[in-house]
Amino acid sequence: MANSKRVLFQKRRLRVRNKLRKVNAGRVRLSVHRSNKNISVQLIDDVQGKTLAAASTLEKDLGYVGKNNVEAATKVGQVIAERALAAGVTEAYFDRGGFIFHGKVKALADAAREAGLKI
């Protein structure tokens, strides 16, 4: 199977990332990774190659809320926005990777916007 789920996901991820890099040169990247149980996000400066801030549901205070993990993703979005503002970052571009922009990913982005991060 040449077009397995993983291969299609990788293609989608690279397509999204390359389009965003062309448009948003100079801004830091808010990169999201979602699994079935957890969601994590990093604020990455691609010019320096450094992670400026990170948040994840694997942290004790941001952990699993219940069957609906949208609440946990909302918490992670608020925390990453606070950490970004503390690091001096006010604008970032949202790299959803190969994930569809709905559910947990959308809740994280909306919470980060409400907390003051310009995406």
Automatic annotation (TrEMBL):
**Assigned GO CC terms:** cytosolic large ribosomal subunit
One Pfam family, short name: Ribosomal_L18p
Q: Per the UniProt entry, what are the Gene Ontology biological process annotations, in alphabetical order?
A: translation
Domain of life the protein comes from: Bacteria
- GO molecular function, a single term: 5S rRNA binding
Family annotation (InterPro entries)? Ribosomal_L18 (IPR057268), Ribosomal_uL18_bac-type (IPR004389), Ribosomal_uL18_bac/plant/anim (IPR005484)
Q: Which UniProt keywords apply?
A: Ribonucleoprotein, Ribosomal protein, RNA-binding, rRNA-binding
How is the subunit organization of this protein annotated in UniProt?
Answer: Part of the 50S ribosomal subunit; part of the 5S rRNA/L5/L18/L25 subcomplex. Contacts the 5S and 23S rRNAs.
Cited function: This is one of the proteins that bind and probably mediate the attachment of the 5S RNA into the large ribosomal subunit, where it forms part of the central protuberance.
Please give the PANTHER family that the UniProt record associates with this protein: 39S RIBOSOMAL PROTEIN L18, MITOCHONDRIAL, LARGE RIBOSOMAL SUBUNIT PROTEIN UL18M
- Family in the record: Belongs to the universal ribosomal protein uL18 family.
Name of the featured protein: Large ribosomal subunit protein uL18
Q: Which organism is it from?
A: Pseudoprimorskyibacter insulae
